[in-house]
Amino acid sequence: MKKKSKILGGAGETVLLTGNEAVARGCLEAGMAVGAGYPGTPASTIMEKLGEVANELGFWAEFSVNEAVAFEVAAGSSLAGVRSLMSTKMLGVNLIADALTVISVTGVRGGLVIITADDPQQFSSQNAEDTRFFGMLAKVPVLEPGDGQEAKDMMKYAFELSEELELPVFFRITPRICHSSFAVELGEIRKPKRDGKFIRDPKRFVTISTYSRPRQPILHEKIARAKKIFNTNTWNRIYDHQNGKVFEKGSVYNTFGVIASGLTYPYVEEVLEATKINARVMKLATTYPLPEDYMVDFMSDLDQVLIIEENDGVTELQSRALAQRKRLNVRIMGKDDGLIPLSGELNPDIVGAAFEKLFGVKFQEDLTEPYLEAQELVSQRVPSLCAGCPHRSSFYALREALRRKGKGGAIMGDRGCYNQGAYEPLEGMDTCICMGASIAMASGLSHSGTKEPVLSVIGDGTFYHAGIPSLLNAVHNRSNIVSLIFDNSITAMTGHQLNPGSGVNLMGQHTGFANLKKIVEACGVEHVHVINAFDVEKLVETVMEEIDHDGVSVIISRAPCALVVERNIRKKKLKMHSAVVELDKCVGCKICMKKIGCPAFSWSNDPKPHLEILSHCNGCGLCVEMCPFGAISIPDRPDGVLGISIKKEVTK
Amino acid sequence: MNVILCGVGGNGVVLTTRIIAEAALRDGIKVRVGEVHGLAMRGGTVVSHLRLGSDAKGVLVPLRKADILLAFEPLEALRQMRFLKRGAKVILNNQTYVGVDAHLGLSKYPEVCDILEKIEAAQDIVDVPASRLAIESGSVIMTNVVMLGCLSASKELPISRDSLIDAIKSRVPPLMIDSNIKAFELGEKAFQDWEKNVVCQA
Ligand SMILES: Cc1ncc(C[n+]2csc(CCOP(=O)(O)OP(=O)(O)O)c2C)c(N)n1
Ligand code: SF4
Q: Residue ranges per domain, chain B?
């Protein structure tokens, strides 16, 4: 029996939901008809949760091939008048900017909400950009929930607001909302209204400049209207804190103010309660455009205001401008004054430190002697690819090929699980910039006059997302590169989402397969190889050969993600064949470790220094080849061939 | 009350936190949870902050404000010690996970006795062979349930045993319920044995 999805609880129930689940539930309560997204931590599970219930409730949910596409899908259904969602991590907003800055001009019909998960602490992102600037750029309102309950309720509101303004709306969250769990009281699920109908209105939707130019003032008027709405809606709230207690606004006198943006309000609450500092606090949920009258009213009674926000000082910037324009006699403080750090997420201790500096109080407990000593002993773990990961063997082969060539060489990398292969001992990548950058950067490098071999590495998911245009470009512009596609047939890093190569979509429908090899060939690449990722010798030889070829070569190194294989082994109750070490053959040289550093390796000095293999070894067999003394073997492996990939029964 | 749970990916830290949080909700206790988990890969540091009752404000526990640490791995316990009040209860699974990075010299895994000594200097530590007991009750996967049993027996949490058991039952496949209960009981017994031991030594 399939377990009932947690986001389907009955109205009135209070259940424990993650922020992402609460957001998904909010979409159901809004009667969303179409949801499109692209995986990206920490937002991925929103679309996954929606996908689990889409058929049952009758809405459409998809992981699109990239964020630009996802946004355009959602925009298309919005034009048909139905409520539509686009979900992404903040980096995906960079990709949608082109369409977004135009759709804001045309306006939308059905509510169109864009979830953007920012990542100030960079738990899983290449940068810490602040998507509120995209709100300002495109003139799209930004809402920020403060907890799980708000994440659900405000989601519903976001659709309503979008329809009221006929504008897309950003719904900005962070990992501390997405991955935290809250007790959430559920409302009524609304049946999705999926009755799209497109009504022609070329003067609005065909943005030739003669049509589009007159719409600019309309957009500015919409933002002016949003300010008015935000002045009076209940998401922004003001409280007075005195002696560690909370009062209704105005019931006690305060001259010091705090504006706490998004989820920072409880941090402020905790600090004020502990330090007994008196303050008037605004919990700000509409961060663009600011609720100007409401803020002026708030600030005009105060001498000083401390602004607390994550990422950039976006509220600070706008508040200073507002105070200047309204000639308010208030000192605004925040990041520009060094009170709130410019980088990293906030937490109660960091907020507390700002109050310590301002008021000379004490919030944060000192780490005294035993704690400091403990800290000194702590070391960071170095992440690694999973045991049995096919990327390990591909990287090993790449480096080995360059070593044998003896000519140095650069490996332009991309974004995916393979990033873990950049660490020692594999050191398989020299760059990682953004999804899809590997091939084009390799092209550029190859035109730079370098004498060294130029290689690139990209995963199948990332290749579909943004790699194809670069490959076309490399062929068209005669780059001299060897481009590897690590094809594990899944988008692993973000939680194993299906992709165009999987043959199944988020709705569970069987679809056409993208044929990777044919795509590459169709781009005009003549040297194309498909090689089992665990066939190290063949990979090494092919890479060496292709380095000598002048032009674009593509090597598809293929084997399934080890975690998928393990899952299937468990599901099908098959035996996992782990490697074993023969004690008398192992000389304790650690060559295996130094070559491939598999996390299933351990070491023992009893009775003599030797390799130990942990029980989570899934028998990929790479280490068997690494040992010069034949000390490692995999007993009764079904077919004696290389790698888990060949065990057909587990890969289907 | 503030509880920190920690371990490495694959230990079940996130699941265990949710079980406690759900049990708290059953008992009508206010609850909030903040988590940090890595990406798809295993073996990385995992930590969650569980806040109960009047502490259930923001999702993050301030430094030196946690009452309990449920640690699935010694080095991870040491890493989170900065969040603990002096004298906070630490329930520790003594099974280490020394990554290949440490064997390669890329990082350093301290001696276990040093780790214990540092924690003991400020905390009230209960160390249990939870992984071994889980294997005894059927599979190492149930290590987290052994830990939960131990935590429950310590009576540090304001949450009832029944609610914890119900929350476990709602999270595991029907066929696994019996072995999970057994794991829970082994955890309870481990705590009681430890208590007796301490009394004897005293
Ligand atoms: C623009 C953008 N969108 C999403 C992400 C999140 N993300 C990181 S890696 C990745 C996909 C990796 O898939 P693949 O290339 O197949 O590699 P695998 O992890 O399977 O090895 C995604 C979606 C991102 N970093 N940037
Ligand atoms: S999740 Fe899959 S692709 Fe990612 S490191 Fe593990 S085995 Fe490799």
A: 2-201
